[in-house]
Amino acid sequence: MDKTGFTLPSLNPRVVELLDGQCNSFHAITFDEVTLQDQPSDYHPNDVVLKSYITPKICLKGCGLMSAAMDTVTEARMALAMAKMGGIGIIHRNLSPQEQAQQVKWVRKKINSGGMIDKPFTFHPSDNLSVLQNAISLNEWHFTSFPIVDDNNKLVGLMTRDEMDFVEDGNPTLHNIMKPIDRICVAPEGTSSEEAYTLMRQNKVKKLPVIDEAGHLKGLYVWNDVKSDQRKREQFSLDDEGHFLVGAAVGFGEAEMERVDLLVSVGCRLLVLDSSHGACRPAREQLQRIHTKYPGKVEVIVGNIASYESAMYLLEGDFKPDGLKVGIGPGSICTTRQVTGHGVPQLTAVYRTWKAVHDYHAKTGYSIPVIADGGLRTSGDIVKCIAVGASGFMMGSCLAGAEESPGMVVMKSGKQFKTIRGMGSRSAMESRSGSRIRYHRNDGSSAPKDESLSEQQKIKVVPEGVEGLVEFKGPLERIVLEFLGGIQSGLAHSGGGTLPEFQRKAQLWLQSSAGISEGKPHSIFSVTT
Fold first, then answer.
1. What is the pTM of this model?
2. Of 357, 359, 383, residue with least CA distance to 370
3. What's the rounded mean pLDDT across residues 478-498?
């Protein structure tokens, strides 16, 4: 986290002229309708610096990437993976306040046990070798080291591939072949990742069990994980206390302050006031409650909005947001535009919000980052968003296929998929009050904590989203690295070594439908990526 390092982006005057001209004609545009002109550059893509602010105090090294507060996208595991990649995860609010706070606490504390497996798979000394081998085969585990514990979960030994390889015949018990505890290097409870790295390196061990004073197993460090974290540490998103940065979605209303209180108490530094229509009186009131109770202690992003007027409404309130989240209806699983008839194509919505912040800054000197939320399919879409003033980028469906997302894995036609649903989908709204509050559909006859709906209440639900499947894409790291690499190339193409430099230089052109078709794979068959 930074103290106050944010500066409002200055856009290329020709970009401002082009987009103002479109807006004056009431013509809204989105990603495919524009393209960027290449320009002379002194930068190799690998040299482009992607740090960006999502609030005046929070700077992310991974280009302001944020995983969306959706119950099929971001829970603790995704938030941790995002922080390790220089981004941030926003944990959804379709959880009880206690569950959500516990997940935030878990993510923040993982920096103190980076690489540590909290609950490693264990076996008992009386188990035969065949039990362990069958478990490895049945579960398709790719690891072969297991702590051996007694009935009280006290560590008594360790089984590794070495012990298994030297069994030539028979089916011995693990007690007879394991490495006993007096020959194992162990660490006390509370050992940090740095301490584990030093200990494992000094003792040349690849597995380091963690035990408490009574000998109970508390976790297991694995050398490859610890070494990887040490190598990538410079990229991590950390707060001012050295913990992983993680955000959480909250709703409106005084009852929701219980959730806010719990989140702040566990050290959450970023709250996202999450609503389908963020420019409303309840948003202003909730901003006032949070900033009055926790002045300077937590940053608050407000959304969603899609217009100059909505941005000004929030900026001109007595209590200011720390960021504006833009996007009404552009998401792949959102049907708000169909249901309500409202929403502005995303590139214009982002620009108009930047314009409002720019004009407000000119009058008052106050400015905040703009976050594009929804409709982002490729790294090129993000590059275009940067060109029109965005500093942060919230992604949902792009990340829903990651291994770390909470969605279920589904097999279909021999391929793996993961489930995704909009927070305004019927299933989300019927099952969780968080979704109903987000879409202003919470029944006043029920307390916000009441998750269930009667059949009569279900009839009144008006969905603003759908659910479906996205292709399983593997580890989040692979997905994010591809996005970051594409963004670096995009900025370098316009001669930008940083986001602010790119924004000053970027030149947009409108393009025809023929130009759009030309810019995509064509004239070939069986296209693969």
1. 0.78
2. 357
3. 98
